[in-house]
């Protein structure tokens, strides 16, 4: 899976860090997650603990999007077979489905082809009736890939607002509170458009804490945020959107536009959401690798968030305590964490992403034998073409240059020049970031 593994695998401990990453990503593969949660027996579709009588439906539509959508489609088509009558998903790296169209879209900023594909998807959903079972697929990246500007808003205005929010350092649930109120598909609006069909959503989470309303901006999940909340996010993070966006949100806050549907508006019997995979699933797999290798594993959290460079030094401090005192666990040990850190753009904007900033900030402080590796599970750290980076005590020899790169948000360049970046290519899944710290035996 790791394309440049031969370069990075400089010792057994380096190999262990890479093994943990690879097993974690594989465990979160959409095909594996779907098959563990979805099955069909005697014309009954089971999703987790919920059953759907397939004889009650004339049509079964698979719709949705995200970076892992193609893998989910492949698994669903294999399980459901001829029960699937139509479908369309928008994804960054599509593969052909037998009955479901996988359409190419762009991420992280929406594009014209995202809009065209989402328009086609909404037309398909509009054809659903009481004898239709709609299976929305929501995976990381859905917020950008499913794009339907609300009211008179233009794609250009959505792109500018999205870019400003992504650069602001705002957490994803606050970014999505804004995006929901600028869209005809987000914030439960897809489920409302599918009425009176039965809706059973399959979610592969890329959001810390698995807030279903935030994952992919919750296209089929009731939304409790308001236009006022969206305006508050823009004010708090000092984001000045295009005038049309500000006017749209102000009109909604004044009651001149309809709000996103709340829990009361979406029947719990008609609309259900099923979480089939998340970051904890990936960390569990990495923990097994560490234990099999004879190392003591410690999962610190699957809810890591905040500034990436600060998370890097904090996690390193845990590893340093283990190495120095054996507290809270004795070395050899593997410290694991997952979640989604953010990067506030303060420099001119170089190359890299949250995982590379996390790794470089740890690398600047590294003095012992600890190894730190961090990747985005989708294989693309931020908007870069690498998954993340692996650093050890020899990676940063010029700390002044490393600090300058970090200050300029140019960690990717520095790490690339030291052969520390991790390349996987698109992995087909997306369950946030995975961080592995290997603490060798003190002997």
TrEMBL record:
Q: Known InterPro entries for this protein?
A: GK-like_C_sf, GK_N_sf, MOFRL, MOFRL_assoc_dom, MOFRL_protein
Q: Which Gene3D superfamilies match?
A: Glycerate kinase, MOFRL-like N-terminal domain (3.40.50.10180), MOFRL domain (3.40.1480.10)
Q: What is its EC number?
A: 1.1.1.81
Q: Where is the MOFRL-associated domain?
A: 17-249
Annotated protein name in UniProt: Hydroxypyruvate reductase
**What organism does this protein naturally occur in?**
Halomicrobium mukohataei (strain ATCC 700874 / DSM 12286 / JCM 9738 / NCIMB 13541) (Haloarcula mukohataei)
Query: Which GO MF terms does the UniProt record name?
Result: glycerate kinase activity; hydroxypyruvate reductase [NAD(P)H] activity
Annotated Gene Ontology cellular components are:
cytoplasm
